[in-house]
Amino acid sequence: MQFTDTIYALSSGALPAGVAIIRVSGPGAADALVRLCGALPRARTAALRTIRTRNGGALDNGLVLFFPGPSSFTGEDCCELQIHGGRAVVHAVLDELSQIAGFRHAEAGEFSRRAFQNGRMDLVEVEGLADLIAAETEMQRRLALEQAHGGNSALYQAWAQRLTHARAMIEAELDFADEDDIPGSVSASIWADIVTLRNEIDTHVDEAGLAEIIRDGLKIVIAGEPNAGKSSLLNALAKRDIAIVTEIAGTTRDVLSVDLSLAGFSVKLFDTAGLRETEELVEREGIRRAREIIGHADLVLLLSEKPGAFHLDEAITDDVPVIRVATKLDRGETAWQPTDADVFLSTKTGAGIADLLQELTAFLPDLAGRTSFAMPSRKRHVDCLRQASAALERGLAMEGLDLQAEQLRLASDALGRITGRVDVENLLDVIFSEFCVGK
Asked: How is this protein organized at the quaternary level (predicted)?
């Protein structure tokens, strides 16, 4: 796709910084380098240049690179200016670029959008790149890298090719049934593969839960009666003061949360209001919110400062695992028995915290030895995959090759929407708005 305007933006981090990178993409990228630096460097070779204003005044010295299209990130001529990361320096260079006719500041995600529209990336790779930039844990990095480098895209493309072959064979039998060189039994060869393909898609969808834990984090809720030590445990695990801690029951009124990294996974830890019956209006709202977040938990830490007080609230359903945590052991006021709780700890002395972390780690997915992270990580991927599987199921159940061929087409279109091959215009603004301006 040809664009008539040239875009530019700061593509590196917040200022001030040691180095700032300004990216330029579009038909005027080469002319911009000549105008600012006096000469065009060799393609893909860094050159030290003095960057000047249109009147010849020096702005800064820095490295410049030129990437001629189509072999560039966006698929069009691109250049980068690696300059000192002071605010005044960067703003001066950006202002100089703004004075060039046909140049404008890039919108959020516009460089990546041009890469998609020029065929340099598909939507799964674009979303993987966004996730890679935002990754905070090792597992998030590995999941995002698999998608950004085309692991999922290659899988979906292979499935699409199998569907294309199946449709071609069916169309051939429909149109040329009287010809001797056209296979006479599509069902014998094609439909067996369609059954296998549907099973492969369903197995792939089954891994969406694992991908959700990697991408969005394991949701762990700290629950229990008032004054059981919930906020103290949150602060101890976060290693900083997040929640207010007092001896007054009902201090926590709202849901507090903190993100932690545990064994390479993201863990979202929620502190909640103490669960009890109360007539106090604000505390009642806090308890309602606590029960709501418990309903969405992957794991509940149920706290108690005395034996026999691990009361399962109505919000804790049977399908949510619970770890019973005995607290305030440093006080020595209660004689706990080994079977009274799963973990015994004191947030004041730190005793038992390591045991709790070990228990939490046991609830994380075991990915030891796993080399591929090709799994659906977004709801829209899962929705399209389920649509493809449902279409294949309908096709297998129908009679009549023409009706079956239509279901294969619907399955193929559903796969195409994942990568952006089919009917995705309404998705583009949403997807690319997640990017920072310089990407």
From this structure: Homodimer. Heterotetramer of two MnmE and two MnmG subunits.
